[in-house]
Amino acid sequence: MSKDLENEILAPVPLHINVVEGASDAVFGEITGSGPNYRAIGWKGTAIGLGVLSIPVAFDALGIIPGVISLIVIAGITTWSDYIIGVFKLQHREVYGIDDVGQLLMGRPGRILFGTAFCLWWIFVAGSGMLGISIGLNAVSSHATCTAVYVSVAAIVAFSFASIQTLGRISWLAWIGLFCILASILIVTTAVGIQGRPSVAPKGAVWVSDYRVVGKSSFTDSVSAISTIIFAYAGTPAFFSIASEMHDPTHYNRALILCQSVVTSFYLAIGIVIYYYCGSHVSSPALGSAGPIVKKVSYGFALPGLLVSLMIFVHITGKYIFVRILKGSRHLTSNTAKHWIIWLGCTFGVTIIAYIIASAIPVFGDLVSLVGAFLGTPMCFQPMGGMWLYDNWSKRKGHRTMKWNLMVCWSIFVILAGFFLMAAGTYGSAISIMNSYRGTGGSTAWTCADNS
């Protein structure tokens, strides 16, 4: 690559860029006044990070010290992965999703493999979101109706809001969602700290938390817990869509640093405090750990955040499929009948499949662990190691620096670690799900029972 071309690719976008009618984008094509402007999301609306509800349960399996170490390591790897996405996007402007990366790394088979994994990942995440909302509605209403009805309500609301066309129009809701989730978990954290005991602890005796500095769980339980932490950080694939729809891509790293630093701080603080006071009696999700009254209050705050998260999960998946179907067509950015039929069909299809998953695997912890292991690692580890090698491997022909050698080793380590965690975590999660079904005789699927 010539120096002039390199400078052109890496040149920053003007700070106050406005995408106007007639402008052209490497992904969306010509932006017209008659259609949606997909390049309209700012850096503040980009900083989205949720997943804290599963951290205390993971610490229960691992112990505080291994849990904190695992969380920090996974935070470091995923932050690097998110950073590589921003660098790769600036050097390959035509990249919209992870399937484009697969095309560059492995040709058409890579596009199919990565694209399928991406869709499955977000659909499963949306399913876990619907399940979380059904738990919240059960908690707030004292199980006023069948759980299957609450899952359906979550699906309907998600489809309605996710069908808003651009991230720029809904990204402000992420602030509301983030505030609600953090408020709810802080309520529970404060309550268990004041009470000094979890709500399900044995009554009539002095309570001493049975938290462990180092856990004594089996290999399958431990690797399932690590998969749960990966799930909490596995918003990485969304950064492709976000980087593509930011009106100023030079603010990408600002959003990345804000997102990762805030969520990591809260994950550590809340995970440690709740597990310290609750020990093995911590609930999954964690909002049920402080008793029925606090549970109602905390879920009352959390429900808007859970709904916003679900809406974004469905939107991102539907948008990905929509762009793939209409890329290169005038219907992509024009308000034609074909545009709307395909767009609504994409979001509706994603919602229906996620609903089926949420109803078929109605155990929050098991579903989160399975998704994190089987689909989270291939979305957050292996591709990013490959992306760095793709852009930098050719430098081996010149003078190899120590930095280059270290980055090669690091990229290979990330790839291998991803494959190991995917295989081991999927095995552990599958065993847990089978044990759950064996214990209930399979009656938990599409159940009316209270799951809160």
Provide an overview of this structure:
It is a single chain. The protein is mainly alpha-helical. The protein has one domain: Amino acid/polyamine transporter I, CATH 1.20.1740. Helices cover 69% and strands 1% of the residues. The protein contains 17 helices and two strands. The protein has a two-stranded antiparallel ribbon with strand order 1-2. The protein is globular and about 70 Å long. The N and C termini lie far apart (57 Å). The N terminus is likely disordered.
Series of H and E elements = HEEHHHHHHHHHHHHHHHH
Sheet with the most strands, sense and barrel status? 2 strands, antiparallel
CATH architecture: Up-down Bundle
CATH class: Mainly Alpha
Number of helices: 17
How confident is the prediction overall: mean pLDDT? Answer: 80
Helix proportion range: 55-70%
**What structural class should be given to the helix and strand makeup?**
mainly alpha
How are the SSEs placed, and which strands pair?
Blueprint (H helix, E strand, L loop, with lengths): L2 H8 L13 E2 L3 E2 L12 H4 L8 H8 L1 H28 L6 H9 L1 H34 L5 H16 L4 H4 L1 H24 L23 H15 L4 H8 L6 H27 L13 H35 L10 H24 L3 H17 L1 H11 L9 H39 L12
Antiparallel strand pairs: 1-2
Key structural traits:
mainly alpha, Amino acid/polyamine transporter I, two-stranded antiparallel sheet, globular, 69% helix, disordered N terminus, 452 residues
Short account of what is shown:
With 452 residues, the protein is mostly helical.
